[in-house]
Amino acid sequence: MPLSKLWPGFAVGFLLLAAACGGGGSTSAPPTAPPTSAPATPTPTPPPPGPVQLGYTFNSVTVAPTAAPPAIAFVAETQTTTVTATQANYSGTFTATAGVGCGANVTVTPASPATSTGAFTVTAVGPQAAGCSITVTGGASSTASVGATVPAPGPLQLNWISNLALGSAVAGQTVTPLPGPVNLPGLTSLYGGVLVASKTGYLGTFSSAVATGACTGIITFTAAPTLTAPTTLGTIASLGTAQAYYPAVVGVAPIATAGGCTLTVTDSAVNTVPANGTATIGVSVTNTSGGIQ
Question: Reduced to 3 DSSP states, what percent helix, strand and coil does the chain have, rounded to the nearest 5?
Answer without folding.
Answer: 15, 35, 50
